[in-house]
Amino acid sequence: MNIKPIIPFEPVASDRIPDGSEWIFQIKWDGVRVLSYFDGQEVRLFNRKLNERTRIFPELTNIKSFTNAESIILDGEVIALDSEGNPSFHEVMKRDGIRRVDRVDKVKQEVPISYMIFDIIYLDGNWIHDYPLEKRLKILHEVVQPNIFIQIVPIEKDGEVLFEVVKQHGLEGIVCKNLQSKYEIDGKNSNWMKVKNYRDVIAVIGGVTYRNGIVNSMLLGLYDKNEQLHFIGHAGTGKLTREEWVTFTRAIEPLRIDGRPFVNKPDRIKDVQWLNPILTVKVQFIEWPKGHSLRQPSIQAFVQLDPKSCLIQE
């Protein structure tokens, strides 16, 4: 491929919704960020960490089914829906977490995906990331024709109304974007802001408890800058099925250790089995009071991430 993959522009977290005619608002989909690259010869897909996903999401590689562009880079979110028709990080991770390509055909029948495109960065041999967002969106609607796998993320002008809809449907949140903003490659600034309906964290599993021989809760932690693992709470509810709990119980057998991996002593440590802290999970929570554990944590999905990158935000 003749186009070098880029690190995408990121929104900053915010607890307020901006107002003014220069702002637009979009749903924040609970999926995985994927950029599509077409250099005129081949299509390749990469995530925000520059890991290739071309063979994981083959439905998105038929570029001529939705654009006549000679070359293009698109930015969007790959999502999968749960049984109630809502975007589910747990579901999409069943696809994004595939490590054996020979399983893709089977799993793609079980977990259909959609590509929610929200930006265009490169077109017909020219970088257009310096164009204002308003102009990029106009171009995006001109060159991309939605189909069964491809959608363009809708735009709303009233952020407060959209956030109320998000809360009613239990969605992740909204993204607020300034229409005059450039697309800052490998950048992050307040021209794009994300306002979440709930909070989440990627945490490290440092121990488990069992019920009837099957793991029923995880002890979670985050590292500090000195690479010490701090206990942040227990989680035993969420989106994992019983089958996934059983599979997890078998998988952690080689990770059992005698010593506590956390620098601080967890509460309720009776009958805990400590683990070598190398597995990570995405956890949603309502609140994290200072000096206390996560409030109402809920396990969403296992995530492939370097545990040492799971850091406490100072």
In short:
The protein has 314 residues and is an alpha+beta fold. It is 15% helix and 34% strand.
What topology does this entry show?
Layout: E1 10-13, E2 23-28, E3 32-38, E4 43-47, E5 72-79, H1 89-96, H2 104-110, E6 114-123, E7 126-127, H3 133-143, E8 150-152, H4 159-168, E9 173-178, E10 188-196, E11 199-211, E12 214-223, E13 229-235, H5 242-251, E14 256-257, E15 273-275, E16 280-285, E17 298-303
Parallel strand pairs: 1-10, 6-8
Antiparallel strand pairs: 2-9, 3-4, 3-5, 5-6, 6-7, 9-10, 11-12, 11-15, 11-16, 12-13, 14-15, 16-17
Rounded to the nearest angstrom, the radius of gyration is 21 Å
Distance between the termini: 40 Å
Could you estimate the helical fraction of the residues in percent? 10-25%
Detail the poorly predicted runs: none
| Coarse morphology | globular
Number of helices, where a helix is a run of at least 4 consecutive DSSP H or I residues: 5
In total, the number of strands is: 17
User: What is the arithmetic mean of pLDDT?
Assistant: 92
**What characterizes the major β-sheet?**
7 strands, antiparallel
Structural class category: alpha+beta
Order of helices and strands: EEEEEHHEEHEHEEEEEHEEEE
Strand residue percentage: 25-35%
